[in-house]
């Protein structure tokens, strides 16, 4: 009899331990957010921000890190509550005009190579010409005699690629000479770490603590949080949280407000991000920066 009594109790304990997250989820049903976005935004701040938001008792989030296009499509269809993006709305995608892009922080766009590559920096013009296929060998940059293997995200409309190309060429969908394509920046970074002749773009928040990657200076300025904050590093982009214009979700707005809290700013700082502010140099000098880059690469400002 004792055995028969113990077995159901043991079974109940096992089921309770397995169902723990589901029970917790049900208890927070009114405060549940489904977020979808690119890998860049997820690891830059959303993952840690969601964890802290949950611990503070505000609710919990289901995270679906994938890519920008998928996230914005799902949001416009109403399949998710909130999206993340490392770029603003694209005029080529009509559905994105129905979305609100709220900037949370600035992140540096960093050009990476392997830590075994001797090159330390590039000019904006050199970077422009590498992606255009005009410079193909590291020797032209002071490196060894070896071809430059340009890596890129498979989706040019994804946040990081789009933002860099818009700065260099005036449009985010500019075709470039990048034959090695990867599904996201994480797999791209892994490829660069293994290839001493590789080159690609990622973000400071994603690369700053990866010792296998070297972040190249641009026009003599190294990518850093401080150099983004004062506007001296030319390549940076806002990271956004995106909502639907026709939907006012109080829980979503609570999470966006949390990113501006003291705890939220500490998380941004920990990931080498600069909190967004309209009167800070990165935003205030955006037009002048665009003109400087256009002059440096030899194109007309757009």
In short:
By secondary structure, the protein is of the alpha/beta class. The protein has 2 domains: 118 residues, Periplasmic binding protein-like II (D-Maltodextrin-Binding Protein, domain 2), CATH 3.40.190.10; 144 residues, D-Maltodextrin-Binding Protein, domain 2 (3-Layer(aba) Sandwich).
> What fraction of residues sit in β-strands?
15-25%
Radius of gyration: 22 Å
Secondary structure: helix percent:
40-55%
CATH homologous superfamily classification of the largest domain? Periplasmic binding protein-like II
Low-confidence stretches: 1-30
Oligomer: single chain
| CATH architecture call of the largest domain | 3-Layer(aba) Sandwich
Mean pLDDT: 89
CATH class category of the largest domain: Alpha Beta
What is the name of the CATH topology of the largest domain?
A: D-Maltodextrin-Binding Protein, domain 2
Outline, from the CA principal axes? globular
List the secondary-structure elements in sequence, H or E: HHEHEHEEEHEHEHEHEEHEHHEHH
Determine the number of helices (DSSP H or I, runs of at least 4 residues).
13
Major sheet summary line: 10 strands, mixed
Q: Into how many domains do the coordinates divide?
A: 2
Report, as a whole number of angstroms, the end-to-end distance: 82 Å
Instruction: Kindly name the structural category.
Output: alpha/beta
What is the tally of beta strands?
Answer: 12
């Amino acid at each position: 009899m004792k055995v028969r009594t113990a077995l159901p109790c043991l079974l109940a304990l096992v089921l309770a331990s397995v169902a723990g997250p589901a029970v917790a989820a049900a208890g927070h049903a009114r405060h549940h957010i489904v977020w979808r976005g690119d890998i860049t935004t997820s690891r830059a701040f959303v993952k840690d921000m969601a964890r802290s938001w949950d611990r503070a008792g505000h609710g919990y989030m289901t995270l679906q890190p994938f890519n920008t296009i998928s996230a914005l499509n799902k949001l416009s269809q109403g399949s998710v509550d909130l999206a993340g993006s490392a770029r603003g709305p694209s005029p080529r995608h009509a559905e994105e005009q129905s979305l609100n892009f709220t900037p949370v922080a600035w992140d540096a766009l960093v050009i990476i190579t392997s830590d075994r590559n001797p090159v330390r920096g590039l000019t904006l013009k050199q970077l422009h010409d590498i992606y255009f296929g005009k410079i193909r060998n590291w020797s032209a940059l002071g490196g060894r005699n070896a071809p430059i293997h340009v890596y890129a995200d498979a989706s040019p409309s994804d946040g990081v690629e789009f933002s860099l190309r818009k700065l260099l060429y005036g449009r985010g969908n500019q075709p470039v000479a990048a034959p090695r394509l990867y599904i996201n920046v994480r797999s791209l970074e892994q490829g660069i770490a293994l290839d001493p002749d590789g080159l690609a773009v990622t973000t400071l928040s994603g690369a700053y603590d990866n010792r296998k990657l070297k972040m190249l200076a641009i026009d003599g300025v190294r990518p850093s949080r401080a150099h983004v904050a004062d506007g001296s590093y030319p390549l940076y982009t806002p990271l956004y949280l995106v909502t639907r214009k026709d939907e006012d979700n109080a829980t979503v707005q609570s999470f966006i407000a949390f990113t501006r809290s003291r705890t939220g700013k500490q998380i941004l700082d920990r990931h080498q991000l600069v909190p967004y502010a309209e009167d800070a140099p990165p935003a205030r000098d955006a037009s002048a920066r665009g003109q400087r880059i256009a002059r440096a690469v030899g194109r007309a400002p757009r």
